[in-house]
Structures are given as structure tokens and as C-alpha cells.
Amino acid sequence: MAGWFGALSKTRSILRTVFSGSTDVEDLDAEELEEILLRSDVPARLTMEIVDELESGSRRTTRKERLRNLLVDALGESRTFSWPTDKKPYVVMLLGVNGSGKTTTSAKLARLAKNNGLKPMLCGSDTFRAAGSSQLKLWSEKVGCDFVGGEMGHDAAGVAFNAVHTAMEKQCDVVLVDTAGRMHTKTPLMDELPKMCRAMNKRLEGAPHDVWMVLDASLGQNAIIQAKQFNSVVPLTGIVVTKLDGSSKAGFLFSVKSELNVPILFSGLGEGEDDLVPFDSGEFIGALLGEE
Ligand SMILES: Nc1nc2c(ncn2[C@@H]2O[C@H](COP(=O)(O)OP(=O)(O)O)[C@@H](O)[C@H]2O)c(=O)[nH]1
Ligand SMILES: [Mg+2]
Fold first, then answer.
1. CB within 8 Å of 89: residues ≥ 6 apart
2. Residues with Cβ–ion distance below 5 A, ligand 2
3. Do residues 145 and 116 touch, judged by C-beta distance below 8 A?
4. Distance 103 CA to ligand 2 centre (A)
5. Best exposed site among 184, 235, 244, 288 by fewest CB in 10 Å?
6. Residue 184 phi/psi, 5° resolution?
7. φ, ψ at 276 (rounded to 5°)
8. Is the preceding peptide bond at 188 cis, omega within 30 degrees of 0?
9. Distance CA 145, CA 160 (A)
10. How do residues 151-199 score in pLDDT, each as one tens digit?
């Protein structure tokens, strides 16, 4: 399984001068510092705060310690997710733009649930593309869990309803509803999401219990713009950040708390089915600061 330190090598290589002290950070002037932070998509306001603090702050603590404090404040505490057992099945809907990693993440989450002794079901409601649902079906075989999907052109809300219905009959503990990728700017497609929620709620009151947005870390700040748009259509309850292992822009995660106030729950650190780990803000900041 991939680790945080390795996964964040790209973002860290941009931030190295600032964070890991390989160059004497005291030698960097404010402008250089600002440029480096902005290049890894650390939000502008936080960048300014960091520059100010490092320029004028107390010299009693090291620059790195002062940085860490600012970063910890900006990112907030991580929240560890565990599958609630008082709701059966517990339904989680995953959404996001094309290619963000929704299908892979659904499968990884099913694997996690299974590892926790639960009975998961994967729901393939991506009926936009011919391969949308069949890709997840293959994953369900690999993971060894139940699957309900729809053919291309089927009504996604109907597929989701069916999945919840079948999961109740089969006594599944968890349902992971993979959705079709959609652009946050396309209104008719976005409108399908609340419709899916209503359909699931009709079969099982309270479902979906969670709505998680899957964000591709390589998009940097653009991921935040997308998430805000999705959040205005269906309120998000969590973020899963994927492809942290290939991103040089992981600094955008410092915007999540102030812009969305939604917890970052999981992180994808690779393509393998076990490469999904609980998001740990301490580990994340530590890896950025060059701590293995
Ligand atoms: N490196 C890396 N690749 C990932 C990760 N998550 C997903 N991918 C890859 O991203 C691509 C798109 O993933 P997919 O789940 O099909 O995205 P979807 O369109 O949102 O369903 C696939 O090639 C995945 O293997 C991750 O955490 N790290
Ligand atoms: Mg997909």
C-alpha cells in the first residue's frame, strides 16, 4: 500500500525549499516564497498569511514550526469515518466530474467495508456510457460483493432505487452508489442528482445517508470550484481526494475547510484496490514538511 510520504512527492518537490528546509528558507524573499506556495495551489489568503507570519513572526520558533501551526489551523482536524451500524443498509452516494476516480473509489470503499466484516453492495448508476456500469460490475467480482447496475440509457434514479431495494432484501450493510461523471456547469445533468436522492429516500427514509464528492487532486483549486457547485445542488457530507500520488497541487486541500467546510474523509494514494486510506491531516502536513 502506498504511503503519504511517497504519494506527496510531487507537491513536496515544489514546496521543498519552503517546507523541508533543503535550502535556507530564511534566504527566500517574500516574493519567492509567495510564488512557491501559489504554484502548489495553496490558497491565496493562506499564502499571504504564511508570508506575513514568516516575515514578521517571532524568531523563537523555527520557520518550519510556524508553518506547521498555520497549516494545521487551515486544514483542521481529520475526522475518522467508521461505518454506522444503526442504519441498514448505510447508503453512500459518490459524485464528481468525469475521471475523478468515483468508480475506483466506490470499489475501494466496498473493499474497506468488507475488510471491516460488513456486507457491501456496489450500485452502478452510471448509465451515460456503455461501459459505465460494467466497469463497476467487474470490480464487484474482484471485491466479491453484491452488485446492482443499469444498462446504458436507463434512468439513474431508478437504478439507485433498485439497488437500495435489493440491498434491503439481501440484508446488505452498506450500499455504495457510483454515479456518472458530470460537469458541474451542466444543469440538466446536475438536476439528476437530487432526483436520485429522492428516489433512494422513497425506498429507505434517510438514504442516501452520505454524499461524498470525489475530487481529483491534480486539478488543484479547480476541484474546489467544482465542489462548490455540486454542494449547491446536493449538500455534500464528505470529500474523498484521489490521485494525491500524482498531484503537484495538493495545496488546494487547505481551501476545503474555509470554502466548503466539509470533512476530507479518505484519500486515494494509488490505483490499487487497497490504496485508499483515511485522510489524516497530521500525516498530510508531515509529508509536506518532508517527514517520512
Ligand atoms: N494514481 C491514482 N490513480 C487513480 C486514483 N483513483 C483513481 N485513479 C485512476 O483514475 C482513472 C479514472 O478512475 P475512475 O474511477 O474510472 O473515474 P470516474 O470516471 O470518476 O469513475 C483510472 O485510471 C483510475 O485507475 C488514485 O488515487 N491514484
Ligand atoms: Mg466511473
1. 121, 164, 167, 168, 172, 173, 174, 175, 204, 207
2. 102-103
3. no
4. 4
5. 235
6. -65, -10
7. -125, 125
8. no
9. 17
10. 888 999 999 999 999 999 999 999 999 999 988 888 888 999 999 999 9
Backbone angles phi, psi at 264, to 5 degrees: -85, 115
The CA distances from residue 242 to 8, 50, 100, in Å, are 12, 26, 7
For residue 247 and ligand 1, the question of a CB distance below 6 A is answered with no
CA–CA distances in Å: residue 146 to residues 88, 140, 162:
15, 7, 13
Cα(280)–Cα(116) distance, integer angstroms = 19
CA 170–ligand 2 middle distance (angstroms) = 25
Tell me the pLDDT tens digit for each residue of 207-243. 999 999 999 999 999 999 999 999 999 999 999 999 9
The strand pairing partners of 122, in sequence order, are 147, 176
